[in-house]
Amino acid sequence: MSDHLKTALSLAASGVPVLPLRRGKVPFGNCTTCTGNACGGRPNMRTPGPCHCAGVCHAWAAATTDPAVIASPSWAAAWQRAVCVGYHPGGAGLTVVDLDDADAIAWARTTLPTTRSVATTRGEHWIYRGAMASRNAVRPGVDIKSTMAYARYLGPGTGTLADLPDAVRALAVKQPPAARPAAHAAVAVPAGVGGECPHRTPAYLARGIAMAEQRITGASSAVHATVYRTFLAVLSRHGRCGCLTDAHITRLFTAAQSKGETARHCADAWTNARTTLGL
Q: Which pairs count as long-range contacts for 67-75, CB under 8 Å and 24+ apart, including other chains?
């Protein structure tokens, strides 16, 4: 039994849903049957219908505490290739504040209540008791990983778990965009942006997000460029009407990460697409 598998089983026994992470510290991609969520996804991915795939191919939604699944033959190949153990913080009732550099750590020490911390390659994970919506790039060098997200397990850490403070919850609240100066009013955006919302039924937006996921997961090369162009297309059609939710954005980020993109690259591509469109 590999060390990663032993760690995963130990975490699962304590109620922490786990999954193997491959090179690049990202989840394993969809199997052939599940490509582009053609299987209908898993219930906790908030997509219709159950998925009966026994593999570990649905990113954070594949995380489980079931030792029979974790040690099953269908997961064996993934554990052999895994570079580390991942876990679903929200599934364990936790929130991870990912501090990516020294400046972010300094900000946290003067702003957030002390809690359990774990050293990372470049910074620290601060872990709180309580789950919330995940959101990347809430401020420079800071990501929030909880529901519908995964984090690397880097050891038990030090310190005592504190309850999730309002200061962290507030970071994930989207602020209304500032009014743009008149000098920028002439920013050109593709046709279809603004005006009356074109979404006659929820199925219209759902179909658009599903097509975007398929475009990303179907990319065989130039993945980063494909992700950016897809984000740009989604925002050009749905970016101003207010119909996009955090759940939609997380689905796109998850698809990109299944192709090897990092959370940081996803956040940067999304921000760049918004900037291009003047959003």
A: 67/9, 67/12, 67/13, 70/5, 70/8, 70/9, 70/12, 70/18, 71/1, 71/5, 71/9, 75/20
CA 72 to chain centre: 26
Measured in whole angstroms, how far is the alpha carbon of residue 160 from the centre of its chain?
26
Structure tokens at 106: 């300094």
d(C-alpha 99, C-alpha 230), whole Å: 28
* Phi (first) and psi of residue 152, to 5 degrees: -75, 140
pLDDT digits (tens, 9 = 90+) for 118-133: 999 999 999 999 999 8
Q: Is the pTM of this model over 0.90?
A: no
- Please tell me the distance from the alpha carbon of residue 43 to that of residue 69, in angstroms, as a whole number: 17
Helices marked H in the chain — which ranges? 3-13, 67-70, 73-81, 102-111, 166-171, 202-217, 223-238, 246-258, 263-277
Taking residue 268's Cβ as centre, other Cβ atoms within 10 Å add up to: 16
Whether 146 and 125 have beta carbons less than 8 Å apart is answered as: no
- The sign one gets for the Cα dihedral 194, 196, 198, 201 is positive
- CA–CA gap between residue 209 and residue 250 (Å, rounded): 11
Helix (H), strand (E) at residue 137 = strand 135-139
